[in-house]
Amino acid sequence: MEVVVGRRPSVFVRPVSMEEGRRLQRISRTAKDPVRLRRAIVVLMSAQGQTVRDITSLMQVGEDYVRDVIHAFNERGFDALDPKWSGGRPKTISDEVREHICLIARTSPADWKVTAFSTWSLSKLAEHLAKHKVVAVISRETLRRILRAGKVSWKTTTTWKASTDPQFIAKMHRILALYDTPPADGRVICVDEFGPLNLMPRKGKAWGPVRRPKRLRATYNRHDGVMHMLAALDLATGKLYYRIRRRKRWREFLDLLKALRRRWPGEKLYVVLDNFSPHKHANVRAWAAANEVELVFLPTYGSWLNWIEAEFAALLRPQRHRPPQPR
């Protein structure tokens, strides 16, 4: 009997909402934990419609790892991005009591007829728990760990945004269609700006005498100012083209478009980009209409749909996570 070995079917993350997409984009730019950062980039690329093979090529990980991350996100959501550590001694405080502590911490002291202060500190909360016999005695460090495990943290109030774009769904489907089935008469290019960039002294590691570290001057001057990177990602080849400029006005952006036009003469260019005002300048629109360049704008607050976002996130990984000290 002849056995035919075919390509494994592609796996994609479930459809994500606009808020989830923006949250993935934020994690891919700000996460300090390398495991959480890597998983977020994998999910973000899958949400953009990239295949498992594309993700493994960029992230330099195995296909099984990518599939496991996608399946875990589909089942558990953002909890799947956090690494799970095991070990330690058994808990002395039950899960029910821990949940009750987190519930009290999320309430206001005024709800318990405590008017001497308006918010809970760790010491005040520990006294309150002992007074109401929730626990006999609890240290501030134990209380802090319980709140952290229950995802209760000390934070300021914040705001959130919803897309006001009435054509959000139509624009999203248009962009995903360009990703899935590139037009035969042209080429799809994702464009975005990255920066500002500037050189700063960073503390590093080096061999030296014990208790005599090398010193690096903390003062520095930006004699040449800050720079900006204008980048374009060719989805057909996966190559990233960029240029460094002092500013990112419509003139610099138009020069980038002209350079892309010269690189691929005779092909129509479908440029995916966000709603940054220089992108919509009248001179840019007029030149694009006259030179077979279609500007495909992302929906409002939908920059996470741009494939180049994952490239930027991967570009930052070596800067955030330096290799360990040599053995």
From TrEMBL:
Residues annotated as domain Tc1-like transposase DDE: 187-315
InterPro entries assigned: Homeodomain-like_sf, RNaseH-like_sf, RNaseH_sf, Tc1-like_DDE_dom, Transpos_IS630-like
SUPFAM superfamilies linked to this entry: Homeodomain-like, Ribonuclease H-like
Residues in the signal sequence: none
Name of the protein in its database record: IS630 family transposase
Lineage: Bacteria, Bacillati, Actinomycetota, Actinomycetes, Kitasatosporales
